[in-house]
Amino acid sequence: MLFAMMFAFWRFLEILTLIPTMGMLAYFVDGYVKANQLTPTYILILFIVSVLALAWCIATLFSYHRSSTNAQFVSFVDLAFVGAFIAAVFYLRWIGNVNCTSVDRGNPYFVDLGAVGSANFNTFRININKTCAMLKACFAFGIMNCIFFFITSLLAWIHGGNTARSERVYTTTRKTSHHHHHHGGSGHRRSHSGSHSRSRRSRSHSRSYV
Q1: Buried-state track 132-168, b at ≥16 Cβ within 10 A, e below 16
Q2: Quick one: 123 exposed, middle or buried, by C-beta within 10 A (0-12, 13-18, 19+)?
Q3: Tens digits of per-residue pLDDT, 19-69?
Q4: Residues 103, 128: Cα–Cα separation, whole Å
Q5: So what's the pLDDT on residue 70?
Q6: At how many degrees (to 10) do helices 130-208 and 41-60 cross?
Q7: Mean pLDDT over residues 175-179, rounded?
Q8: Residue 43 to residues 53, 90, 200, 208, Cα–Cα distance (Å)
């Protein structure tokens, strides 16, 4: 039960980070399609991986624990997504060194202080490059999902191993119980038949002396 709760928690985190990633990348893909241009590889790879990962997370959120084999399969696929996200982040690694904000000096601000005098203040304007900021956010979410999917892969593998051991113990116990029940029934039948034959011999022996 603990592993199931932990798995569900990390799955929700994956979904929460994959939804904005897919949305921002879909915005870029749509822009390139409308401009009749090829989508860059660093956007396309992360977009495809994010879409597939989001569908996988939703599909396996409540079905991974149905059997040990299913849990181990989920672990394997999650590990494959770790590799896919690493590759996607690798293609987008250049955005990590880009500065998406710039600070410019604005117009001076004059304040009249009356009899005291006046004061001049310099204002600053912060400019944020929207495209750069969105790509950097996708890059950060990709790194986070590398960690998240590794954790869920490990949890699913542990849960699958524990479930497999529990199933083997249950099967062995059931076979042993069935064997003992069958052996006990055979002994009871042999004991009953032996006592019945001894009773018949005692009655025939008593009649011979009459």
Answers
A1: eebbbbbbebbbbbbebbbbbbebbbebbeebeeeee
A2: exposed
A3: 999 999 999 999 999 999 999 999 999 999 999 999 999 998 877 655 556
A4: 9
A5: 80
A6: 30
A7: 48
A8: 15, 11, 93, 106
